[in-house]
Amino acid sequence: MGVYLGDVGNVEIRRESIEGAKESIVNPSDVNPVRNRFSFDFEEGVLITGDLVEISTTDGTNLDFVDASGWANGTVQTSGNWYVFVDQLGGIRLYSTFDYSLEGEANGLISLNAIARDIPIQVSIRDRDARILGQVTDYVLNTDRETVDITALSDEHREQVSSLISGSGTLNTLWDYVEEFNKEPANYLMQLVLRTEIGSAFRAKLYLKAPGTQAAISGSRKTQLDDSLWWEFNAIVTSSSTRFQAGEALVSAIDFVTTGPIKLRASTQTPNYLLQENGFQITVEQDSDSQLLLEQNE
Prior knowledge:
This protein is mainly β. It has helices spanning 98-103, 186-192, and strands spanning 11-15, 22-26, 31-32, 37-38, 52-57, 79-86, 92-95, 119-125, 131-133, 136-149, 160-174, 183-184, 201-209, 228-243, 251-258, 263-267, 283-284, 287-291.
């Protein structure tokens, strides 16, 4: 039997929304084609830099303010997916990749066109890429099952049956606001708790053992190197706090509650990917780091 240490895990999170779409209108004055920047009426915190959003028209017309180069087939359509950069004034720029959107510069920037009519739109978060939460020091996951008392007046002993399962926990991280390649900083979750319209939802994988790590200090086997073990669930952020003390590292605590099933999963097989005829992996939408898995044969 191996002894597992707490330094071989990590936390993966995926941006999500459980509150549906935000509807608004893009007016001609909202689009600045020179700066490739536009805006629409939304409350602060609805969109966060790095979100992959789906923008669609609600009247069936095309998104004319987005240039044709913003679509893979070069044709303006009624709906499209892009990563967003949100500036301090609430202006939005569209980008082709997550990393470009974090920089907010010219690389990967989608061109915009001037429009002569109002365009009604709806915006939904559609991020499907899981990223590592940076600088996690520790996490706690609590699972509870409620009981229901079904004791009748004629019973001599109290009877109870199990009821619903709930979960909650805390993520403790060293505070940072600078996003690195495919990593989320603690500051993102602190922004997430301020989302009032789209919601503070996220999907998490809390790894006990991440793949590629040597977890056992005794009795380990090389075949265990690629094994992984994790909890997986949807959750919402309920509170966040940051401890500030002179001469000490800033530590943030993010509290959450689960909103659905809590699954304890294990992977002991090397994943195989569905390939194209040319041998390259099939990527999922715009996420070059997400591929289609090939179902394992029993």
